[in-house]
Specification:
Layout lengths: L1 H22 L3 H4 L7 H12 L5 H13 L3 H5 L7 H18 L4 H19 L1
Length: 124
Amino acid sequence: MSMSLRLLAVSAAFAFAGTTFAATPPAAAAAPAKPPTVQQQRMVACNKQATGKKGAERKTFMSTCLKSAGSAAAATPAAAPSAKQAQQGRMKTCNSDAKTKALKGAERKTFMSSCLKSSSAAAS
């Protein structure tokens, strides 16, 4: 009988110890929180500016806002066109010129190459 009482006492001690450890917060939770990164701060600012926008409009706005250099640029995302937008503009202009001249095949390829080169030299 004394053996079963000991076993019961040890079992109760382990059960009590288990609940005590479970109630103790982990060490990671006690560590001070790290300040948000620049990207996280930008996300918060863009989210505030995107209120009221939905669907594709919101997605486009968020993409543009997050890519911008800072909150001042985020307020006016269309202030300065990016290099990609400038290249797309040159491509559009050269394409329309080639279409107007009814160029096809190798002739069109040569024209497009020279047009894009001259446009990028003029833009620089």
